[in-house]
Amino acid sequence: MPESKGINLNSFLENPEVKKVITPFTDDFQERLDFQPQACKVFSNPATRLESDLEYEFDIHPATKEALPNIIANTVQRVIGIETPDSNLEKNYTRQRNIGIVFSGGPAPGGHNVIAGLYDAMKKANPENRLLGFIMGPEGILEKDFIELDETLIKQYRNRGGFSMIKTGRTKIDTKEKMALARENCKEMNLDAIVIVGGDDSNTNAAFLAQELINDGIQVLGVPKTIDGDVQVKDKNNKILCAISFGFHTAARAFAQNISNLCSDSSSDVKYWHVCKVMGRVASHLALEVALQVHPNMCMIGEEMADYIDSQRQKKAEASGVTDYTAFGMTLRHLSRVICNTIVRRAEAGKNYGVIVIPEGILEFINEIQIFIIKLNTIIAEYNQTHDTDFHSDFITLEEKINYLRRMARFSRENNGIFVWNTRDDDLFSDIPAFFQEGLLTERDSHGNFQFSQVETEKVILGLVQDYLKIRQEEGRYKIGIKPEWFDKTLKKEGFDPDYYGPVIFKNYKTNEPFLLSKDALISIKTLNIELVRKRIIGKNDDIPPVIQKVFQATIPKFKTQVHFYGYDGRGNDPTWFDCTYTYNLGLTAFSLIANNASGQMAAIQNLEKDFDDWEPIGIPIAPLMHLEERKGKLALVIERAVVELDSPAFKVVEQIRENWIADNPGPDQYRNPGPIRFSGRSVDRKPLILTLNNLGEKG
User: Fold this and answer.
1) Which of 120, 201, 228, 669 is catalytic?
2) d(C-alpha 46, C-alpha 107), whole Å
3) pLDDT at residue 1 in the model
4) What is the pLDDT of residues 306-358, one digit of tens each?
5) What domain count does the chain have?
């Protein structure tokens, strides 16, 4: 190795202090690896048994009974600690087993601790037990691609984020051929059980695999994973069985920490609006948790958009004796106005900056967008069927497609609305940015569905916001407020009399208001010049004094944005104490279910919203959770995704206090700094704030 500046690099790299600098194994990293999560009290016993809890009831769909007859009668099972197991229980509990585990879908912080908990429990029961990790998700089952997981390997990943140990994949075992191959491979491997760690689709897959393998004596268990937080389980009487999936808390905290940094940047640079889109296509749980963690100036909750009622439009329709279905659900136009109003209010308080949090799937909650998609799908399908051709081949450009829709709207008007596309549709569609119009009119997927994932949500919303702000600015209703003291000091410094110019420029001069706002008519240097000439402050051919120009320019807002997407970074984050402990106990629970011959169950921890001492490991029957839902153009049995409940204490709190977060006053912003993620120590974040508030709300 060459020498540099008299340094022998070989010797230099062997220096212990240098090694300490360049090693990937930092002190914090090692501390995380050495951290031992707490285990629920029942797991301190030599063995456990399962006890059916018949308190919980489910509305079971007839199609589920038909598809999953061998596991449909499963009940909620509680894990009970046994201090002195009898010989039969001990023999079954401690017999040698081969257990497979697979990650399915996107990564979520804490997955490695599911493996660690399962491994520790099975080795405690019988050191001869074997744990086999399938590589790259369910594809590993089909390809029989696996590795045996031992203490040496698992030790490298305890309490770490990601799914790096065995990777993950999105392959579905969803055909007869794949099921048959999975069954054959599991039998050849002499597996006793498989644990599938995944979201709603993956746990649905686990149920079907459990049904397929039950007669072969191979158990299949699911574990609830998704950072979106949309895997939540309640029975038909709204009793909570699983409050949140693992990974949610860590992802929300990771996003919150980054967005909190943007709050600091925004209030320092005072010229940007940071628009932060967080993952959550179907549900807005992450956006709600981030809002509680950070207190952004604005937070949009998709479920709230869908629940919105335009009372003015409704009253107008009722007076005419008709029902206006478009009065239900917020429109894009209205949403842009809501955002604009906040931006204008803060600008008038001298705060031409801020932070907005929106969920990734907010457009899917907008009523008119759903109507557009349904109508356009119908129009395109009917056109193809009627003309025995392809709509997109006949109308290649966006202009051609829009002209076709306009002809439909005209024909609808002339024929008393018999066509799908009417003039109101046409007017609303014209308000949408051209690139989004093109997106809505793009070719459907192979199943005829609109490809929502291709839409740049924030670009659609910001385009409308910028257009409306421009209108407000041209009308003189979008100004930056300036402090009277600054105006006074600035003019006096240049030898000008503030009281001479103030009444001409500002509509609220000498009113003791905290911020001065320029007159509505003054929207440019040109209009200012006209006003100064009219008031005979300057002559017709005189220039506006530079200091007056400087003051006036300070009142003219420039809407600048920075757009950020938070998703993949949170999926790979090292887990919080909550997720470290939650997932470790999920692994312990999974083994208890296996050791007690359960199959078709989801390992879960009840009472997550309470203190750790109240946590209770349970098994939840997967089959009763299923219902029919359209997926890829077909009805399929799936687990229903949980959305934000607008009557929950957590949402009600945000709804009540977020007006304060706008902070359109001279005081400081209300940003909250959640601090760094910790997995131990005095300031550790014990659980999601959503769960804390909901639990406090239950207590009253």
Assistant:
1) 228
2) 33
3) 44
4) 888 777 777 887 887 777 666 677 888 889 999 999 999 999 999 999 999 99
5) 3
Q: Could you tell me which residues come within 8 angstroms of residue 58 by beta carbon, excluding any fewer than 6 positions away?
A: 235, 236, 621, 624, 625
Angle in degrees, 0-180, between the axes of helices 176-188 and 200-213, rounded to the nearest 10 = 70
At position 235, the amino acid (one-letter code) is: D
DSSP 514: S
Let me know: does 518 contact 554? Beta carbons within 8 Å. Answer: no
Domain range for residue 508?
481-554
Residues 240 and 265 in one domain: no
d(CA 102, CA 294): 35
Cα separation, 168 vs 247, in Å, equals 15
- Residue 299 backbone phi and psi in degrees, to 5: -140, 120
Against a cut of 0.85, is the pTM above it? yes
User: 305 and 215: one domain?
Assistant: no
Boundary-marking domain end, from 501, 524, 554 = 554
End-of-domain residue from the set 613, 639, 665:
639
Find which of 14-28, 173-187, 356-370, 391-405 is predicted with most confidence, using mean pLDDT.
173-187
Query: Do 137 and 87 share a structural domain?
Result: yes
CATH number of the domain where residue 468 is located:
3.40.50
Token output for 383? 């056109």
Tell me the CA end-to-end span of the chain in Å, nearest whole number: 70
Is residue 426 flagged as an active site residue?
Answer: no
Give CA–CA dist 319/311, Å, rounded. Answer: 12
Does the structure show a pLDDT above 60 at 215?
yes
Query: pLDDT digit string (tens) for 539-559?
Result: 999 999 999 999 999 999 999
Does residue 42 carry a pLDDT above 70? yes
DSSP conformational letter for 687: S
Instruction: Name the DSSP letter for residue 681.
Output: S
Pair (126, 201) in one structural domain: yes
Q: Are residues 469 and 497 in the same domain?
A: no
Asked if the structure places residue 22 within a domain, the reply is no
